[in-house]
């Protein structure tokens, strides 16, 4: 039971965060990172609300979606206002970063940012699929569970391959160390030259 609950928590790759982003003439990006497997759909919803509506023209919100490992820039968009939805598909297993900056003409401007990041099965709009295919509520839930199970299986296969790779590296290093140690031991005992 605990393992099943842990796996379901692991599979739920959705993050929602709300924060304030001060404006600057040379801003540093505020990045939110999530791990995403290869060929994973990511839906990013950003809602931008300037603290003072009269200063909206003095601020420019920019977003970049990048991955840390391969330095890919999946998406770059400037001048975000109100609510914006972005969709990407990842190319590699890597940390996926949503980096947001607020360029302002003055330094005392602030915008409130509401950021939702949905990865994998959480990014799929099952209500639209249910309406399009005339699915019942139970069939829609089964579709969600099948997607979640596929994601868990894919992640477990990735972890298995990673463990095999690490085990192989460990055995190689251990074998080299043993040969080096035994060679020194036999030299001390004068069994080899």
Automatic annotation (TrEMBL):
Name of the protein this chain belongs to = Vesicle coat component
Q: Which residues form the signal peptide?
A: 1-16
Q: Tell me which UniProt keywords the record has, alphabetically.
A: Coiled coil, Membrane, Signal, Transmembrane, Transmembrane helix
- Which PANTHER family is this protein grouped with? TRANSMEMBRANE EMP24 DOMAIN-CONTAINING PROTEIN
Superkingdom in the source lineage: Eukaryota
The membrane topology term of the UniProt record is: Single-pass type I membrane protein
Q: What is the originating organism of this protein?
A: Malassezia obtusa
Q: Which residue stretches, if any, does this entry annotate as coiled coil? A: 135-162
Q: Which InterPro entries match?
A: Emp24-like (IPR015720), GOLD_dom (IPR009038)
Localization, UniProt: Membrane
Encoding gene (name): ERV25
What does the similarity note say? Belongs to the EMP24/GP25L family.
Domain GOLD residue range list: 16-187
Q: Does the keyword Flavoprotein apply?
A: no
Any Gene Ontology CC annotation: membrane
